[in-house]
Design brief:
361 residues; alpha/beta; Rossmann fold; 7-stranded mixed beta sheet; 4-stranded parallel beta sheet; 10 helices; elongated; binds 6-O-phosphono-beta-D-fructofuranose
Length: 361
């Protein structure tokens, strides 16, 4: 019988999941291994098991298809993160059932495509006896150990395009446009897209803001005869001394808090303080859809091929990671030990300041 490995996609979807599946299946096949797709996230390992072999000949087209053909989930019995990122132990009975089914499927190891939540689930599976290797996925780009996660570039590219489109509107109507971007507790998407899109104000969780500072920048532009302003706000941005803005009040039980809505509050306050017409646009899940960019496709292909290599080398409990110019392996426990946030003394922030971008501080 052929060696068999499994592959599972967990947590939020993002561009590039299918590209990694494509690369893993192809690279495994070339080693003579069969890849079993586990469907509906980790739940697919629970009875009744949802799994089927993925034939490398079916992989054509997956390289550039958004979403995940395996399906995914970020809630339910396999939740490892709740509230504002607190770790939660998965029920041992659930892990034991997954391990039994993993063994019954004849799997040697499981490739886990996930962000900090799903990689943390993977680690708990590993402790329960399921050998795993990880592939760091998330538009948030907040995993330690890799200079970039897959999905991030595609999200930034979309968000930058959105700024470009909203700028023509802001300019035509002499308005302030506030654009809210995802990223949870890290401001990577907002900082990258904000700079690439030429925004004047960028508010990120790492730098608590004040309205005085935001308004000062808008009024400076007015004085220069620029009657419009682009303001980028990360969903996790918060006022100095303030709290995160979440949707629907208290976080739902057994899942992470849903951030969102800060742009409406910021837009209202700007309008009040400046008298300028101000509108908010939330990019939301549009940032997680569509085809992966060229950069993401390449990264996913490299990540997928390296994940198969890690299994061959039995580097279980490790994830693939980009450390230019190589793909290295990195312990998942360290990768998810804390969130990788934008360094406030780093080049991104410095670049913004050099160009006169206000970070709201
Ligand atoms: O982690 C990816 C992400 O898109 C975050 O940027 C965002 O806060 C969250 O997921 C949204 O989760 P959901 O799709 O469950 O609302």
């Amino acid at each position: 019988m052929k060696e068999r490995i499994g592959i599972v996609t967990g947590g939020g979807d993002c561009p590039g999941l299918n590209a990694v599946i494509y690369a893993v299946v192809k690279a495994a096949d070339r080693r003579g291994w069969e890849t079993l797709g586990i469907y509906s996230g980790f739940d697919g390992l629970l009875s009744p098991v949802q799994a089927r072999p993925l034939d490398y000949r079916e992989m054509d087209g997956l390289l550039y298809l958004g979403g995940t053909v395996l399906g995914t989930s970020n809630k339910g019995r396999f939740t490892a993160k709740i509230g504002h990122g607190e770790t939660k132990a998965i029920d041992p009975a659930v892990l034991a059932e997954a391990k039994r089914n993993f063994d019954a499927l004849g799997l040697r190891a499981l490739v886990v495509l996930g962000g900090d939540g799903s990689l943390s689930i993977g680690l708990q599976c590993m402790e329960a006896g399921i050998p795993i290797v990880g592939v760091p996925k998330t538009i948030d780009n907040d995993i330690v150990g890799t200079s970039v996660t897959f999905g991030f570039d595609s999200a930034v590219s979309f968000a930058t395009d959105a700024i470009d489109r909203l700028r023509t509107h802001a300019q035509s109507h002499s308005r302030v446009m506030v654009v809210e971007m995802m990223g949870r507790y890290a401001g990577w998407i907002a900082a990258h897209a904000g700079i690439a899109g030429g925004a004047s104000v960028v508010l990120i969780p790492e730098i608590p803001f004040s309205y005085e500072s935001v308004v000062k920048k808008i009024l400076e532009r007015e004085a220069e005869g620029k009657h419009f302003t682009m303001v980028v706000v990360a969903e996790g941005a918060r006022l100095k001394g303030g709290d995160f803005i979440t949707q629907g009040g208290s976080p739902e039980a057994n899942r992470e808090a849903r951030l969102g809505g800060v742009s409406f509050i910021v837009a209202d306050e700007i309008a009040k303080r400046t008298g300028k017409e101000t509108r908010a646009t939330v990019l939301g899940h549009l940032q997680r859809g569509g085809v992966p960019t060229t950069l993401d496709r390449l990264l996913c292909t490299r990540f997928g091929a390296s994940a198969v290599r890690l299994i061959d080398e039995q580097k279980y409990g490790h994830m693939v990671a980009l450390k230019e110019p190589d793909i290295i392996d990195f312990p998942i426990s360290e990768g998810v030990s804390k969130l990788r946030t934008v360094p406030t003394d780093g080049d991104l922030i410095r670049t913004g300041r050099a160009l006169g971008i206000s970070w709201g501080d």
